[in-house]
TrEMBL record:
GO CC annotations on file: extrinsic component of mitochondrial inner membrane
Signal sequence extent: none
Superkingdom, taxonomy of origin: Eukaryota
This protein's encoding gene: coq6
EC number(s) recorded for this UniProt protein: 1.14.15.45, 1.14.15.46
InterPro entries referenced in this protein's UniProt entry, alphabetically: FAD-bd, FAD/NAD-bd_sf, Ubi_Hdrlase_CS, UbiH/COQ6, UbiH/COQ6_monooxygenase, UbQ_mOase_COQ6
Protein name (record): Ubiquinone biosynthesis monooxygenase COQ6, mitochondrial
Pfam families given in the database record: FAD_binding_3
Subcellular location: Mitochondrion inner membrane
GO molecular function, one term: FAD binding
Family: Belongs to the UbiH/COQ6 family.
Assembly information from the UniProt record: Component of a multi-subunit COQ enzyme complex.
Membrane topology classification: Peripheral membrane protein
Physiological role: FAD-dependent monooxygenase required for two non-consecutive steps during ubiquinone biosynthesis. Required for the C5-ring hydroxylation during ubiquinone biosynthesis by catalyzing the hydroxylation of 4-hydroxy-3-(all-trans-polyprenyl)benzoic acid to 3,4-dihydroxy-5-(all-trans-polyprenyl)benzoic acid. Also acts downstream of coq4, for the C1-hydroxylation during ubiquinone biosynthesis by catalyzing the hydroxylation of 2-methoxy-6-(all-trans-polyprenyl)phenol to 2-methoxy-6-(all-trans-polyprenyl)benzene-1,4-diol.
Amino acid sequence: MLVNNMKFLLNRQFRCCIQTTSVRLLSTAVGGYSPQFKDNFKGNYDVIIAGGGMVGCSLACAMAKNSLLSNLRVLLLEASPESYYQPKPEYSNRVVALNQNTKSLMTSLNVWKHVENVRLQPVRYMQVWDASSDVMISFSSADMMDDDVAYIVENDLMLHAINTELLAVNSNINIVYNAKIQSYQLPKEAYPSTQSIVKMDNGDTYTCQLLIGADGANSAVRKAMGVQYLSWSYDQMGVVATLDLAEECTNTTAWQRWLPTGPIALLPLDSKRSSLVWCTWQDNAKQLLKLPEDQFVDALNDALWKQYPRSSSVETCTSWLSAGLKQAGMADGAARQLPPSVRGVAPASRAAFPLAFGHSTRYIAPGVALIGDAAHRVHPLAGQGVNLGFGDVKDLTELLAEAVYSGLDVAHPNWMQKYESVRQRHNVPTQVMIEVLHRLYTVDFLPVVLARSLGLQIANALQPIKKLIMAQAAT
C-alpha cells in the first residue's frame, strides 16, 4: 500500500510539471500568454465537472469521499445560483423513483441519512395494468427479500442532501455557481495530450486534464466532442402534479395504467398525497394544464377508472389463459388492488415537460467523459432516468480510483474505454427495453394488443421473469 501511495504521489508530481508546461503552451495558443489571459486564467484542475445537478454533484461528492481520488483538484461548474433548501409542508411536483442500487450508493456517501431526516416514501408494492384489456402485473417487496421496490424522493430534496454532504467534506472540491460556460476547447490529439480549456462568459478560463460532461440532455460538452447522438421526440409531454387523495391510507403502492395515449402513474408521497406523472400527447397535455381544478381531477379519475373499448377476441383469449394459469396453480392476475381516487390538486403544482429519447454513441473522447442525461435519455415510464445516471457515477468513480491506484493518469484511455463499455452494456439494453414497452403500449392494433396482454399475463405468473425484471430495474 505504501509503495502504491508513493507511486501515486510521484506520478502526480510528474503530471503537475507536465500540466504546468501544457498551460503555458495553451496560453500561448490562446493569446500568446498575454497579460489579459493571465488575468483571466483561474486555474488548472485534474478534473472539471460541467453541470451541478443531482448526477454532477454526486460525482463530485463520490470523488471527495474516495481516498484514492481525494487528492485530485476538482472543479464543479454549476450554471444555477447557490440555493438554500428549506423543507416545506407542501411537496414539490418533481420527484424521482430511486432504486436499491442508488440507495446503496447514497448510503455509502452518507447522503441517504440527509434524505431520511427530511422525508421519503418507500414503495412496497407496484401494480401496472392495461386499459385496453385490464391484464396486469404486480411487483412486491416480498419478491425482493423484503427490500423496498423503490423510494420516492423530491428532486430538490435529493440535490440538497447531496450538496449537504459535499460541502461538509473538507476536500479540494471547488464549486463555482452562476457558471455560464461560453465554449470548450477539447484536445485534438489522442492521449497523452489531454488538456481541455473551458472558457466562461465573463472571460474566466480554466484548464483540466479530464472534463466530465454532466450538463444534461442538451449537453454542450457532448456537442463539443462531435459524437453522434441518436435522438427523437415522442411528441408527448409528462404532466406532473401533487395530488390529494380522497381517503387517507397506508399509500406505499405505485400505480401505473397504460392508456392508449401513454402511461399515467401515481407515486406515493405520504398517507394523504401522491405525485402524478401523466404521459400524453402534447395537445392533450396543454389542455390538461388549462383545465380548472375540478375538471382536471375529473379527467384524472377517468384516466384511472374509465372502461375503455375492449376487443371480445382479446377478452376471450386472456380469459382462457387466466383459467389455464389458475388450474396450474399460478397467479392468474384476478386478485388485484384498486387504485385510490383523487380528491384535489395542490395549488400551482401542475406542470409539464417534453419527453424524448437520446443516446450518445460514444461516452468518451480524449480527456472527456459523459455521464447522466448528457450520455442517455429515456422515457419516464420505468422511472429509470436518474438511476442510470447514478450508475454512471458509481462505475466512473470506481474505475478512475482503480486507474489512479495503478499509477495511471486520470485521462488514461484504458480506464475510460472500460467505463464506456461497462456503462453501455447496462444502459443500452435498459433503453431498448423501455423503448419497446413505449412502442408496444401506444399501439391499439388488435394483434399487438393481444400479444402484449398474453405476454403480461405470463410474465406476472412466472416468478423468475418477474424477479429478472425487478433485478434489472434495481441496478
